[in-house]
Amino acid sequence: MDRSLSKHQWCAIIFLMRGEAKVWLEQAEENFKTAQAMWKAHRYGFTCFCCQQTLEVILKAAFIAAGKDYPKIHSLAKLFQDSELPKGDVNLEILKEISKHYFQVRYPDLLRGKYNRALAYETLEKTRRIYSWIKNQIIKK
């Protein structure tokens, strides 16, 4: 079987990937808006959870925009490391820290006394910076 594709076929694939990446970018934006709404509602655990989801979705959008399959994982640091995004501009320790919110919010025994206004605000601001940077990297392509 011939696996080569014509220029027209490649253009069609790229068009579809960009459309799919757009869907993922829109979902990341929705997740970030939800994080902001949870902050305003004083739902600090869910603020942090939605921040994690925002970054997970936009990192997976970066894979799609690059024409790659994204790994089915939740580790933000691993997603970033495996992506084609420029390295050095994002602190992996911050990504590891935000990744923890995927699990901690969902398990009451891990949640006790953890989430407060200060932690949620800090997480929201770190997410805002990273999210904006990744979004700009995707849009540049």
List the helices and strands and how they pair.
Blueprint: H1 7-40, H2 44-65, H3 76-82, H4 92-99, H5 101-104, H6 108-111, H7 117-140
Q: Brief overview, please?
A:
This protein has 141 residues and is an all-alpha fold. The chain has helices at 7-40, 44-65, 76-82, 92-99, 101-104, 108-111, 117-140. It has a single domain (29-140), classed as Nucleotidyltransferases  domain 2 (Four Helix Bundle (Hemerythrin (Met), subunit A)).
Structure report:
With 141 residues, the protein is mostly helical. The chain has one domain: Nucleotidyltransferases  domain 2 (Four Helix Bundle (Hemerythrin (Met), subunit A), Up-down Bundle). Helices cover 73% and strands 0% of the residues. The protein is built from seven helices and no strands. The chain has helices at residues 7-40, 44-65, 76-82, 92-99, 101-104, 108-111, 117-140. It is elongated, with a radius of gyration of 17 Å. The mean pLDDT is 87.
Q: Can you tell me the CATH class?
A: Mainly Alpha
Structural class: mainly alpha
Low-confidence stretches: none
Beta-strand proportion: under 5%
Please tell me what the overall shape is.
elongated
> What is the CATH T-level topology?
Four Helix Bundle (Hemerythrin (Met), subunit A)
